[in-house]
Amino acid sequence: MSKPLKQIHLAAHFPGVNNTTVWSDPEAGSHIEFSSFAHFARTAERAKFDFLFLAEGLRLREQGGKIYDLDVVGRPDTFTVLAALAAVTEHLGLTGTINSTFNEPYEVARQFASLDHLSGGRSAWNVVTSWDAFTGENFRRGGFLPQEERYSRAKEFLATAGELFDSWRGDEILADQADGTFLRDAKAGSFVHSGRHFDIEGQFDVPRSPQGRPVIFQAGDSDEGREFAASSADAIFSRYATLQDGQAFYTDVKNRLAAYGRRHDQLLILPAATFVLGDTDAEAEELAKEVRRQQVSGATAIKHLEFVWNRDLSSYDPDGSLPDVDPDVGEDHIARGRAQVRMYRDPLATAREWRELAAANNWSIRDLIIETGNRQSFIGSPATVAKTINDFVQADASDGFILVPHITPGGLDGFADKVVPLLQEQGVFRTEYEGPTLRDHLGLAHPDDARDERVAS
Hints:
Blueprint: E1 9-13, H1 34-46, E2 51-54, E3 62-63, E4 66-67, H2 78-86, E5 93-99, H3 105-119, E6 123-128, H4 133-136, H5 147-166, E7 173-176, E8 182-184, E9 190-194, E10 199-203, E11 215-218, H6 223-232, E12 235-238, H7 243-255, E13 268-273, E14 275-277, H8 281-295, H9 298-309, E15 335-336, H10 347-361, H11 365-372, E16 378-380, H12 382-394, E17 400-403, H13 413-425, H14 438-442, H15 447-456
Parallel strand pairs: 1-2, 1-17, 2-5, 5-6, 6-11, 11-12, 12-13, 13-17, 14-16
Antiparallel strand pairs: 3-4, 3-15, 7-8, 9-10
C-alpha cells in the first residue's frame, strides 16, 4: 500500500537584505513603501500560502569602509510592518526575524503576544543570533558573543519568553519541571526567572494570545543550530537546493527530534527557493540566464569576489580574469555585516578551486560569480515547476518551500496564478485555509493541547 501524499507548505519571503532583487526591471518597486508589502501579502494570501516572512537587517553593510549599496541596505522595523499587514490580511501567517543576541525576553515576548492578538493568532518568530561585533556596535552591550555563547543565550532567551507567554494560564500549569512535575501559580501574568543570562521577575501584561505562543522558526545550519531547532523550534529553514543534499539535511534534523521526546511531524523543514517561470522550459531557461546577469552586475561580481579575496579588487575588470594574487587571510575583513563571508572558511582553497573552474570553462570574474552563486531553485514551465516542488516534498527533501521572487512586489503573482492551481489539482496543496491560526496552516498543535497530551501520558 502506497503512503499518502504529503501536503506541501508554501510561504513567501519579501525579498531584501540580499542581492536577489533585479532592480533594473521596470516592474521593480519600493522596499519601504507599505503598498509593496501589502501587494505581496495579499498575493500570498490569495494563493493560500501559509505565511509571509520578513528577514532582518540591523546595520547597513560596509565594504572597504563604505556602505554596500548594490542590494537592499535596510528595512522598516519588522514588528511595525507585520502589525500593519495584520490589518490587510485575514489568514496569512506573519513571520519575523527577531534577534536574541541584542534584545531582551520581556520586550520581545510582549511584542509577539501583541502581534498574535492583533492578527488573530498568526504570528511567528524566527529566532536568530548575531555572529559579528560590527552589527553589535549599534547596541548597548556591543552584542558580540562566541558561537557557543550565542546559542546558550538564545536557548535561555526562548525559554524565558515561553515562561512569559505561559504566565497567563492563571491557575493552570505554567511550566514543565525537570523532575516531571508541574509548576502552578494562581496569579496570572506573574513570572520569576533566574538563569545564567537573565534574572527577571514581575508581571507580564499581555494576556494569553490565540496561539498561546508564536510559532518558532530557526535558521542556523551548524550542529548547534540543528540541535536548537530539534529541541525548541516548530520549523527550520534549510539552504540545501539539491534533492540529495535536501534529503540528507531532512533526515539528520528529523532524527534529532526523538532525543527531545518529539515526533517527526512536530518540526517542519522549509528551504528558501527562487524560481523563474516561462511558457516553456526552454523559455524559462533563457529568462533565468538573463535574471542572473541582472542580479550579478559587474560591480556586484567584484564585491562578491572580495568576500573571498579580502582585498580591494575595484581595479579589476569583471569581464576579465581572476586575480593572480592570493586572498588575504588576516583577522580583519574588508566586508562587514555580510553573512556570506562565513561561507568561505578556507579562502586559499576556494581561490584555487575558482581559478581551476574559470580556466576550464573560460569564465570571467562575472561568469564565475554567476555560475558558483545561488542559482534559481526552480526553472521551467508552471507544470515543470509544480512537479519539481512536489517531487522534493514527496521524497522527504523538504516539507515545503519559502519562495523568494526576484521582483518586488509583483514577482509572486505568476506563481500564484499558474503554479498553485496545478498543485491544488494534484491534491497536494490546500484550496482553502483549514483554520484561523498559523498553527492550523502548518498542522501544529496548540501549546496547551501538547501539554495536555504530556499530562495524559
